Amino acid sequence: MESGKQLSGTLALAVFTAALGSLQYGYSLGVINAPQTVIERHYGRSLGVLPPEGLTRSVNHTEEEVPHPSVVMYWSLSVAIFSVGGMISSFLVGFVGDLRGRIKGMLMVNVLAIAGGLLMGLAKMGKVHLMVISGRAVMGFYCGLSSGLVPMYIGEIAPVAYRGALGTLHQLAIVTGILISQVIGLDFLLGNDDMWPLLLGLSGAPAVLQSLLLPLCPESPRYLYIKLGKEEEARKCLKRFKGEYDTSKDIAEMRKEKEEAMKEEQVSILTLVRSPVYRQQLIVALMMHLSQQFSGINAIFYYSTAIFASAGVSQPVFATIGVGVINTIFTMISVMLVDRAGRRTLTLIGLGGMCCCAIIMTIGLVYLTTYPWMSYVSMTGIFLFVSFFEIGPGPIPWFIVAELFSQGPRPAAIALAGCCNWTSNFIIGMTFSYLEALCKSYVFIIFAVILFCSTVFTYCRVPETKGKTFEEIANEFQRRRRGRPSEPKAATELEHLKNSTEA
């Protein structure tokens, strides 16, 4: 889509509106952490293992230090159920996206977000623990769908020259949502005994705004033309996105992609996994999502407050918010760099830098008791670790899947990659505390090894997709699969590509 005006007000509105779903995802990820001890007290009262509210002031410290086992169980379920909901719904991304279109799909799933927000916001009106767990489950189900639909829509409407920058906005919205939840979750704002239901209930607020704006956004022209065959509507949407211009070049590109897609049956998840035609792309897509989650970034957020406390920071929660600010700033930097430096380059820099930072943090933790100043080494390691993550490994896996696959297999690929991301997120969340207890100060060596392997894999197997059409990207994979043939053979490869719906 190189013709016509590249960036317009309509395109900006559409990307902003879609990214509200990602903001909501980030908010839901971060909101549960700040008010943990407050909510655990309410769980205790709801379960009958703590005295009523008026009698708890004298025992608050005991409650915080040693929560009742049933409280711990229900709290863990409140945190974990979010990922479980996402794991399940991520498989439905392709179905929902194709059912009524990308815009109506996002509009439909907002019902889940609003319902989840209401369940948590009204938690005090019922059994607190059941209301929060139910709300988190519904919100997780929504976020699993949203984390697939948003990159899919943005990837399809973005001009090639800006596809990376606009795709990175998904991650920027996520980290912004996390930061907002950290700030308003402070105890003197909403993270207190009276206001915490409102804090959790606000998880559904972006869905309300998004529902008002989505009807103003054009549908994906690629969906309209390739999936529904509505050429005239696709032309109208192209002009809404890019102003008055000759749409023939864009339509011709989509027509070619549609012709290739029609030569094979609809690509299901099972077909995608089995087909050798898509195997190279699929391995790259899944490995990038695995390297994102198994990099240890969530473990860093989990562990940062304890490291800041050991460094003598009187309010470690503010230092953790500082990490959130760094998170957001470096995602913005990635937005500016991704279409200049390229996806592969930024991913390599990010993974390699994180690997070094994990080693630095390990050294800081090992020698913490011997040299008190080593805590500052660990703190520096944390800030740099987060910075390198947001430069490449954080944002790029979310949108590169849409670049690696053409219209036919794209929904199935995004669903599979999303499930992979949610599942690995859940595994890290459930196992990190056990790894920490087992390895103690050496826990980040595990992540350093994973990051080193991920860096090597990216260097050897991940192609650069910057500025390339879907056909060029897929053709490169096919040439790799056949051992990089000479030019005449490459032409034959393109014919094979056309016969297998790759574009």
UniProtKB/TrEMBL annotation:
Cross-referenced SUPFAM superfamilies: MFS general substrate transporter (SSF103473)
Record domain Major facilitator superfamily (MFS) profile: where: 14-466
Predominant cellular place of this UniProt entry's protein: membrane
InterPro entries: GLUT (IPR045263), MFS_dom (IPR020846), MFS_sugar_transport-like (IPR005828), MFS_trans_sf (IPR036259), Sugar/inositol_transpt (IPR003663), Sugar_transporter_CS (IPR005829)
Membrane topology: Multi-pass membrane protein
Gene Ontology CC terms, in alphabetical order: brush border; plasma membrane
PROSITE patterns: MFS, SUGAR_TRANSPORT_1, SUGAR_TRANSPORT_2
Molecular function terms, GO-annotated: D-glucose transmembrane transporter activity
Annotated TM spans: 72-95, 107-125, 137-160, 172-190, 196-217, 282-305, 317-338, 345-367, 412-435, 441-460
Region annotated Disordered, chain positions: 479-503
Any one of the GO BP annotations: D-glucose import
Keyword Nuclease tagged: no
UniProt cross-references to Pfam families, sorted A to Z: Sugar_tr
Protein name: Major facilitator superfamily (MFS) profile domain-containing protein
Lineage start: Eukaryota, Metazoa, Chordata, Craniata, Vertebrata
